[in-house]
């Protein structure tokens, strides 16, 4: 159903079964997939590509030009995968010449007031809780969860199946399969509960726990820790994903937890 009170450019490409509620504006260079619901007072701007069976709630803006002074009007896109939910007042900016697109995967949930900046790549099944702010060029892996009111620095990478505590300032890369919390953001254990929910075996979870104990608690520098991991732990998909992520971390990774003194105070 298309409301007569919506403004849709004649060149916009809407698949059968799309619903557009009143007072929504859809620009010319837009594609929306079958069965998607666009709520009232939504703005879908040029370059937006929205998949099938998505939900876009009031006040959201998809495809606005990047907040980047280097942007010169190049034709770029903001791509939203299938079955993704975009809640109230979310903003997803389109890409720049760097990547040409901003991409949010399928089956994601972007809660109210989330901002996804230009050239971000967000995987499938991700959750960004209320008011998460994601700067440009950030990459977030599949099944990652970022807690509410967190801010993610530009060019940071968050690995698959990671969980970041609410209110975090994410300045460094967060490896896959971990929980991260505290200030400054630090390793807070393997995301064992999340991995079990997603069908990882106990053997795989134990390996992840051993791997990160070596990396964050073993007293090694990063290169030595990776060498020790490859020497001591069997080659599994989880090991290879984690080791490759850490080796490719251009901003460096989060640190291990601070160790306390016997009197309960933190060591320097």
UniProtKB/TrEMBL annotation:
<dbReference type="InterPro" id="IPR029098">
    <property type="entry name" value="Acetyltransf_C"/>
</dbReference>
<protein>
    <submittedName>
        <fullName>Acyl-ACP--UDP-N-acetylglucosamine O-acyltransferase</fullName>
        <ecNumber>2.3.1.129</ecNumber>
    </submittedName>
</protein>
<dbReference type="InterPro" id="IPR001451">
    <property type="entry name" value="Hexapep"/>
</dbReference>
<dbReference type="GO" id="GO:0008780">
    <property type="term" value="F:acyl-[acyl-carrier-protein]-UDP-N-acetylglucosamine O-acyltransferase activity"/>
</dbReference>
<keyword id="KW-0808">Transferase</keyword>
<keyword id="KW-0012">Acyltransferase</keyword>
<dbReference type="InterPro" id="IPR011004">
    <property type="entry name" value="Trimer_LpxA-like_sf"/>
</dbReference>
<dbReference type="Pfam" id="PF13720">
    <property type="entry name" value="Acetyltransf_11"/>
</dbReference>
<keyword id="KW-0444">Lipid biosynthesis</keyword>
<keyword id="KW-0441">Lipid A biosynthesis</keyword>
<feature type="domain" description="UDP N-acetylglucosamine O-acyltransferase C-terminal">
    <location>
        <begin position="173"/>
        <end position="254"/>
    </location>
</feature>
<keyword id="KW-0443">Lipid metabolism</keyword>
<dbReference type="Pfam" id="PF00132">
    <property type="entry name" value="Hexapep"/>
</dbReference>
<dbReference type="InterPro" id="IPR037157">
    <property type="entry name" value="Acetyltransf_C_sf"/>
</dbReference>
<dbReference type="InterPro" id="IPR010137">
    <property type="entry name" value="Lipid_A_LpxA"/>
</dbReference>
